[in-house]
Design brief:
457 residues, mainly alpha, 19 helices, 68% helix, globular
Length: 457
């Protein structure tokens, strides 16, 4: 069930809001069980076979956390984390490991026919965050119901944002609809839903029509012209932003309608004047996770410059591998790790960097590395790079108007969260959001409906 589909927008979401509202009004003690049941239904809609996987993951991790609290056995938490990562690896990386092994002459391992469960990367990382903080004494114990809802809460279970336990657990005990600003929060949730859906439908999906044919041609071995290469590279740069930030805006808006405030995940990242700032603005909750649960344990900035540069590189390379089971993703992450290391060395040397030049270098670097992220192979990426660097026919037909509109919205406008907070709670705003919602429904019914890009991760 996609956020941008009729079954979700016209059936599941209204029914869920009604059931949740009735529980909150008449049986507050049922509110969390209702939310958990709705989350299980939402997740099972994709493929009911994976509901036992999600339930088993929640149950086992909760039991191990309780056992740790009872015994204080230090080895239990590393064991639990290893088990989570092993399950993730089995579903997501087994064929990748087989392909690497088959590079050895004479090796011929069969590929496993496993379907990747949606959201497994995200709910695995939620387990890891809680378990690490529990072992460090930062996280308190929670009952099974609250822990299960933390992991499975349907607005964020499939593609984030990555929510820390302390950001959401206290909200489960609130009465969201008796707050003095309850109606305003609900209205802003609707606005966020509409803005995120607009970014997906009006900007992200049309860009897919410019991007996909070029990368498909590159994957088939066809020559990619200069015009096609720049159209694809710039198009994907903005497509993935509108697609993923649009999903996040919808997730934040839906959660807010249920009385839950989730953390922001994007803050106009293409205005960043350095790569370090880009990662503070792009997929912000993942950046926090990589910093706190990988970069710092690897040494961070506590053991000298050499260790810090190595930790940056390793963190980003592993972050690339998390995004996808392929060497192109590792290369994408490693390139960002190298770029962050170069920026660190530049700052340590005390060299100046004018803001305009810093922005230009950062934007070009991000565009070029997105090619690795999107290409299905190094050969396909190389075909696009040949066009980008002028080593291919010039070509024609660059859709510059579409790209210019996307660039203007991504670079000049405020973040969706900021824009929604600025809208005054008036009748005009309510009528405008209702009209926009109807237009979006008509647009969804008229065009192809693309899956969200990050669902594959």
């Amino acid at each position: 069930m996609l956020f941008n589909s009729f079954p979700f927008l016209l059936a599941f979401l209204p029914a869920a809001l009604i059931l949740h509202g009735l529980a909150a009004r008449f049986r507050p003690d049922w509110r969390l069980p209702v939310l958990l049941a709705l989350s299980v239904v939402f997740y099972g809609w994709w493929d009911v076979r994976f509901v036992p996987l999600l339930a088993g993951s929640i149950g086992l991790n909760w039991l191990l956390s309780r056992l740790f609290l009872r015994t204080k056995a230090g080895w239990l938490i590393p064991l639990a984390i290893a088990a989570n990562l092993a399950v993730l690896a089995a579903f997501k990386y087994l064929n990748f490991l087989y392909d690497l092994a088959n590079l050895v002459p004479g090796a011929s391992l069969p590929r496993a026919d496993l379907v990747l469960p949606l959201g497994i990367s995200f709910f695995t990382f939620h387990h890891v965050m809680y378990l690490v903080d529990l072992r460090a004494g930062r996280a308190p114990p929670y009952g099974l119901l609250r822990y299960a809802l933390y992991i499975a809460f349907f607005p964020q279970v499939l593609a984030g944002p990555l929510v820390r336990w302390r950001e959401i657990m206290p909200q489960f005990d609130e009465a969201p609809y008796v707050r003095p600003d309850a109606a305003e929060r609900f209205g802003r949730g609707i606005l966020l839903l509409c803005v995120g859906l607009s970014k997906k439908v009006f900007l992200g999906d049309p860009l897919a029509g410019l991007v996909n044919p070029v990368f498909q041609a590159a994957a088939s071995g066809a020559t990619v012209t200069i015009a096609e290469a720049w159209q694809a590279a710039l198009g994907f740069t903005f497509q993935i932003y509108f697609d993923f930030s649009g999903y996040t805006d919808m997730a934040l808006g839906i959660a807010l309608m249920f009385g839950i405030l989730l953390p922001q995940n994007f803050d106009v990242p293409y205005r960043a004047v350095s790569l370090r700032e880009f990662w503070r603005r792009w997929h912000m909750t993942l950046s926090r996770f990589l910093r706190d649960y990988l970069y710092i344990p690897l040494g961070g900035n506590r053991h000298g410059l050499t260790v810090q540069v190595a930790a940056l590189f390793a963190t980003m390379a592993l972050g690339g591998l998390w995004h996808g089971a392929g060497l192109t993703f590792v290369a994408w992450g490693a390139a960002h790790g190298a770029g962050l290391g170069a920026g660190l060395l530049w700052r340590r040397a005390g060299l100046p960097m004018p803001a305009v030049l810093g922005w230009a270098l950062t934007f070009v670097f991000v565009v070029l590395t997105w090619v690795l992220f999107r290409a299905s192979s190094f050969e396909a990426a190389f075909a696009v790079y040949k066009g980008l660097f002028g080593l291919a026919p010039t070509g024609s037909g660059l859709r510059w108007r579409t790209l210019a509109l996307a660039a203007a919205v991504a670079l000049l406008g405020p973040s969706a969260w900021t824009a929604v907070q600025r809208v005054p709670p008036t009748r005009l705003a309510a009528v405008s959001s209702a009209v926009l919602f109807v237009v979006l429904l008509l647009k969804i019914g008229d065009d192809a409906n693309y899956d969200f890009i990050y669902f594959q991760f």
